[in-house]
Design brief:
The protein is elongated. It is mostly helical. 71% of the residues lie in helices and 0% in strands. It has ten helices and no strands. This is AcrR family transcriptional regulator. It comes from Niveibacterium umoris. Keywords: DNA-binding, Transcription, Transcription regulation.
């Protein structure tokens, strides 16, 4: 009896080209930054014609925006924020911190949004506004009620914002200051399960500060 032929689904050639360009551009934008990156180098690394960048993305600006959006969407889809839970504020806060640390530091993550955004913040382009509105602001809007639930109703908007910034700064510091930490405090980056241990430390350290602030607000001297 003749065997039934099997059919395999192939990625359309155009989509393969687009994917190759996104991958190549990610590496070069992280290494060189947007302004120093050359489209010729991106096309060569991707193994495609230079004209493919204009065809798929409309040019270097469009390619850069597509790279940022691609990695932002990966980060959000793979590590979504937990919902606020006023009845279990510590668990919700711990889960939120773990989400942030994984987005910034997890070596197994396909998203390179942390490295791309650090480049963007050091030398901003017109894409920064797009990233803030599409990615950063929605995430902070999800993080805010989690922090506010810990601080309690007496906390002002300024106090909630500063608390959020303090937590974010700890998470991002492990990337932005990594060369310094590796030389001065290598033990902070040593060992297995680094992401989980950093998340546990930031949670414990920040929780103590949040509770101290809440107590001061509820019992002013």
């Amino acid at each position: 009896m003749p065997s039934t032929p099997t059919t395999t689904q192939r990625t359309p050639p155009g989509e393969e080209t687009r994917t190759a360009l996104l991958a190549a551009a990610t590496v070069i934008f992280i290494e060189e930054g947007f302004r120093a990156a050359r489209v010729q180098d991106i096309a060569q690394r991707a193994g495609v014609r230079l004209s493919a960048i204009n065809y798929h993305f409309g040019g270097k600006d469009g390619l850069y925006r597509a790279v940022l959006q691609h990695h932002a969407e990966l980060a959000v889809s793979r590590t979504p924020f937990p919902p606020p839970d006023p009845t279990h504020p510590h668990a919700a806060f711990e889960a939120a911190v773990r989400t942030l640390v994984r987005r910034f530091l997890d070596p197994a993550s396909e998203s390179r949004i942390a490295a791309l955004m650090l480049r963007e913040l050091v030398n901003p382009t017109e894409a920064l506004g797009m990233m803030i509105e599409r990615f950063t602001r929605p995430q902070m809007q999800q993080f805010r009620p989690i922090v506010a639930a810990v601080l309690g109703p007496r906390a002002s908007e300024e106090q909630v914002a500063r608390a959020m910034f303090s937590v974010l700064s700890q998470c991002m510091g492990y990337i932005s200051a990594r060369p310094l930490v590796e030389r001065l405090m290598p033990v902070a980056l040593a060992g297995d399960d680094l992401v989980e241990r950093i998340a546990a430390h930031i949670t414990h350290f920040s929780w103590g500060g949040l509770i101290a602030l809440r107590d001061a607000l509820e019992n002013p001297t």
